[in-house]
Amino acid sequence: MRRLLDGLYTGAAALAALCMVVLLACVLLSIASRQLHFMVQGLDAYAGYLMAAAGFLALAHTLKRGEHIRVTLVLNLLQGRWKKGAELWALGAATLLALLFAFYSCKLAWQSHVFNDISTGNDATPLWLPQIAMALGTVVLAIAFVDELVLEILGRRVPAQSSEALRNE
Q1: If phi over 0 gives left and psi between -120 and 50 gives alpha, with beta otherwise, what is residue 71?
Q2: Of 23-27, 40-44, 56-60, 68-72, which range is least confident?
Q3: CB 45 within 8 Å of CB 121
Q4: How far apart are CA 82 and CA 75, in angstroms?
Q5: Which of 17, 45, 86, 164 is most deeply packed, by most CB within 10 A?
Q6: What is the pLDDT of residue 61?
Q7: pLDDT digits (tens, 9 = 90+) for 137-152
Q8: 131: buried, middle or exposed (CB in 10 Å: 19+, 13-18, 0-12)?
Q9: Could you give the CA distance from residue 110 to residue 100 in angstroms, rounded to a whole number?
């Protein structure tokens, strides 16, 4: 099960990286098109969709690597059962919020599909297409939070430490 979950997080991160590469291609094509005096319709909108997709798809991987911003000032002062209780409360609240976020993201994509909602730009893209990446990213994030909560309850959670704190600037 652990390999499956880690593969899910890594797969979502790989999709985010692919979105970033395609985003780069869109930006380079946009620059080239301005220099060569031609226009590709909807390129700016697609770049925005790809940027949002990259952000949402990378959320779970970022969480599992300990790279999300987390205020540990109070947690570092607590010890024993109090610290465990605070961790459980924080992970429980985050899991609930992530589940709600995932539910409503999926609902939004589904409603956009049902109502045939399209973008108002000149690309006229059906909005459910870019919203799928947001829905997928939030579902994987919710799974990651449930994973963290279960590991904390079982006493097997090893909080990832960000390497950012180790850097001296």
Answers
A1: beta
A2: 68-72
A3: yes
A4: 9
A5: 45
A6: 95
A7: 999 999 999 999 999 9
A8: buried
A9: 15
Q: Is 31 exposed, middle or buried (0-12, 13-18, 19+ CB in 10 A)?
A: exposed
Rounded CA separation 146/33 (Å): 46
Place of tokens 């925005």: 48
CB of 48 within 8 A of CB of 131? no
Q: Is the pLDDT of residue 163 over 70?
A: no
* Secondary structure in 3-state letters for the chain: CHHHHHHHHHHHHHHHHHHHHHHHHHHHHHHHHHHCCCCCCCHHHHHHHHHHHHHHHCHHHHHHCCCCCCCCHHHHHCCHHHHHHHHHHHHHHHHHHHHHHHHHHHHHHHHHHHCCCECCCCCCCECHHHHHHHHHHHHHHHHHHHHHHHHHHHCCCCCCCCHHHHCCC
Q: How many CB atoms lie within 10 A of CB 135?
A: 21
- The pair of three-digit structure tokens given for residue 156, joined into one six-digit string: 């097997």
Q: What is the radius of gyration, based on Cα positions, of the chain?
A: 20
Least confident of 8-17, 36-45, 89-98: 36-45
